[in-house]
Amino acid sequence: MAVMGYFAFLDMNMLKGGIRYLAEYDGKNETKNANQVATFGLLAYLIIGLIGMLVIALCVDPVLLKMLKIPGGLFATARITLYLAALGFLLLMMQNYLLSIPKALHRFDVSNKIEVFFQVLNTLVIVCLLYLGYGLLEVVISRLLINIICISTAYRAIIKVMPYYKFTPRIDREIIRRISTYSLVSFAGRIGTTTTSYANTFVAGSMIGVSAVTIFTVPFVLVERIMNISRRLSMVIFPIASELGSKSQHDELLIIYRKMTRYIFNINLFLTLLMCMFSWEIMAVWMGEDFAEKSAPILLVVSVGYLFNTTTGLPSLMNDGIGHPKVTSIFAFIQGITSVVFLIVFGWLYGLNGIAIGYSSAAILMSVVFNIYVHAHVIKISWKEIIKTSYLAGGVFSVLLLSLLSLAKTNDILPTYSLLNLAVEIMIVTLLYSSFAYTFILDKQDRTRIMSLISNTFNKQ
Questions:
Q1: For a pLDDT cut of 70, what percent of the chain falls above it?
Q2: Could you tell me the end-to-end alpha-carbon distance of the chain, in angstroms, rounded to an integer?
Q3: 283 and which of 202, 292, 324, 342 could share a cystine (Cβ 3.0–4.6 Å)?
Q4: How far apart are CA 413 and CA 452, in angstroms?
Q5: Helices (H), 60-74
Q6: Residue numbers of the domain that contains 267
Q7: Crossing angle of helices 325-374/210-234, nearest 10°?
Q8: Which runs of consecutive H residues, i.e. helices, occur in 208-324?
């Protein structure tokens, strides 16, 4: 999986370019161009997959098996597994591209249903195989077979959501140029984003030692996985911005953007609030109390930095959808460099906690600069307005809850730590924030929809 992940760089971020122009042409009912975009993406990812498969296969003996410390008894299994990973790379490229097409057509429901179903199926099959006594090789083969079935399912779904699609062997040079240029510019930003994500682990391991990697990585990955929920929600704005931006319907796009910003920020804020309020308890439940003593401060600091980082998600997608990927790429690249510098400096001054501070400091600095610039020069809306309408109310309420919790902990008001008490406390905070969000974050129309949904649910029962 790691090898397949590293070689995924070969796609040069063409997925984003394909979604961008497919959404535009479909929105304009230019079916001929939309067909060419879809076909070009299919051929491009087939070629990328074949190249990646060949490169991985050629690297198995001279490079990969020498780099990895594999016990002698598992050497033969490792070789077969890596060769299968080469085939898996081709299948993964095709699967990722086919699942992106419904997203470009605003059918996230279709792609998400397929993804969720096959992810669950894959997990269940692995558990069953291991329970029955099978090993790594059978697990890898089952995963490849599930990928093949997923590709077939995704292709059939495309025929339904894009009924006019047909394979178009002749593709205009202008379409190839536009997609390739857009993707290459976006790819530079992807390098910066990847650097930001992985530099902290590298710096922690090189400056402090291997044990520091685990202490930092566990809370960081936890934050990353939890906040990934809202990142997937944010993706909805990308094809919408691509379509409405191409039609010069900027006012309609801003209405959607303001609402999504308010909702997604408060989802992120709530998740961050939980991780900050219960950082020690969460790490103690997961990894033990000794580990929590070292990692809880890191979880708290990284959570705050990651929250600021999430504020760039929607404006980045909005910016890219409108057609300015260079802006996002430049800032992402600069953030990658800034992160490395801050990590080294703060890590040298304050050790492992300093690396967390360095990550969050870089995230906060670059998020503020990016938001100010993009909102003023690309999205054409004041970031002060966004802060006032989307950030302020939730921020004040969160600070109030954190203050009350700190006061309760200082005066030993809370019950002693246990899994049950933690669950109850999280439920109380969730109810409080949900009540606040219903009253002050949701607009009247959505409050009415929620009440109607609840009413209909009870009436059916």
A1: 95
A2: 46
A3: 292
A4: 39
A5: 65-67
A6: 182-411
A7: 90
A8: 210-234, 237-246, 250-277, 279-287, 289-310, 313-322
Classify residue 414 by its DSSP letter: S
- Amino acid type, 59: C
Q: Which residues contact 82 (CB under 8 A, 6 or more apart)?
A: 3, 56, 60, 64, 65
Backbone dihedral angles phi then psi of residue 24, each to the nearest 5 degrees? -65, -50
Alpha carbon distance 375, 97 (integer Å): 30
Residue type, 114: I
CA distances from residue 241 to 116, 236, 246, 271 in whole angstroms, order as listed:
25, 9, 8, 26
Q: Is residue 265 part of a domain?
A: yes
Q: In the 8-state DSSP scheme, what is residue 415?
A: P
* Token pair belonging to 45: 């990812």
pLDDT in tens, 5-59: 666 666 666 777 888 889 888 888 899 999 999 999 999 899 989 998 998 898 8
**In this structure, are 153 and 258 located in the same domain?**
no
Q: How far apart are CA 392 and CA 336, in angstroms?
A: 28
Tokens of 368: 């503020």
What is d(CA 357, CA 370) in angstroms, rounded to the nearest whole number? Answer: 20
**Do residues 150 and 287 share a domain?**
no
Claim to verify: residue 162 and residue 223 sit in the same structural domain: no
92 vs 10: CA distance, rounded Å: 12
